[in-house]
């Protein structure tokens, strides 16, 4: 199959242009979300020339001696003023938005249940919940939705995800990960998504509530002694309210060497250039937390 660059490039063509193997391209796509190929009607992934430039940018940064995390941060900084590639909004997401716009909690819940049963948890999170939350954020930011619509819809989604977590069966002795929003961070849904993904891979999870005190996070770690702690910041507010927050978290990590500390979220990436991690690792994906590739084929 030959392609026109204006219509899309096959992975083998992208491989020739970038010097990257097909396996590396797919891994970077799935693990870091670097590129967003479309699907041809025959199932082949089709990449754009912008995707090629993105991959070449990462290659140049890596060749200059930057780690993958440093290269990703530099790329995100360059792209911060550019619109990100966006997939078409699905009918399921549009239907959920319609219910949320008129405060129809029962209708929202019914559609969420249908989506969960229809797709299964993994695809439900990636194909419905994550695009839905992106749309809600954009509607609120543009003024198309007011705060009440955003809040009520988000609460229904959050409660539904929490219920799934509570009903998730895991064998006794499964390893434990504790998930916490940072102080002053009230957006819980990205954290619950990550914890559900962890549960699908055999991890018990505990989630602290929104905006916990730093002392509460420390007390939880000391009491339950999780193998891993994931700290989530969807916004940069935690760092704006407390410029010493990361150093304080590092001190907590030093006191609890048996727990691996991870931190992630868009609010973290915006401030990463100012951070000096020692014990805490910045995570760009679930794969960074578990040192595995969690992408789908």
Automatic annotation (TrEMBL):
One of its GO terms (molecular function) is metal ion binding. Keywords: DNA-binding, Repressor, Transcription, Transcription regulation. It holds the Pfam family MerR_1. Gene3D superfamilies: 1.10.1660.10, Cobalamin-binding domain, Methionine synthase domain. The keyword Transferase does not apply. The keyword Heme does not apply. This is MerR-like DNA binding protein.
């Amino acid at each position: 199959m030959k392609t026109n660059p204006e219509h899309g490039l096959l992975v083998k063509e992208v491989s020739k242009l970038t010097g990257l193997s097909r396996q590396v391209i797919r891994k970077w796509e799935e693990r870091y979300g670097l590129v967003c190929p479309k699907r041809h009607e025959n199932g082949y992934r089709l990449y754009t020339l912008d995707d090629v430039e993105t991959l070449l940018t990462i290659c140049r940064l890596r060749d200059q001696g930057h780690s993958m995390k440093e290269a990703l941060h530099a790329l995100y900084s360059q792209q911060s003023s550019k619109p990100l590639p966006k997939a078409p909004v699905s009918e399921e997401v549009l239907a959920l938005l319609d219910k949320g716009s008129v405060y129809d909690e029962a209708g929202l819940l019914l559609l969420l249940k249908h989506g969960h049963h229809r797709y299964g948890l993994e695809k439900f999170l990636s194909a419905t919940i994550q695009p839905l939350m992106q749309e809600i954020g954009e509607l609120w930011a543009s003024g198309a939705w007011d705060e009440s619509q955003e809040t009520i819809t988000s609460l229904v989604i959050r409660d539904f995800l929490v219920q799934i977590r509570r009903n998730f069966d895991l064998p006794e002795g499964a390893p434990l990960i504790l998930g916490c929003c940072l102080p002053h961070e009230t957006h819980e849904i990205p954290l619950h998504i990550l914890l559900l993904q962890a549960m699908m891979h055999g991890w018990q999870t505990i989630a602290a509530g929104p905006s916990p005190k730093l002392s509460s996070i420390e007390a939880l770690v000391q009491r339950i002694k999780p193998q891993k702690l994931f700290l989530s910041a969807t916004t940069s507010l935690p760092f704006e309210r407390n410029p010493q927050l990361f150093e304080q978290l590092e001190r907590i990590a030093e006191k609890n060497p048996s727990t691996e500390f991870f931190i992630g979220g868009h609010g973290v990436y915006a401030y990463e250039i100012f951070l000096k991690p020692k014990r805490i690792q910045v995570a760009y994906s679930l794969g960074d937390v578990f040192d595995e590739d969690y992408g789908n084929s």
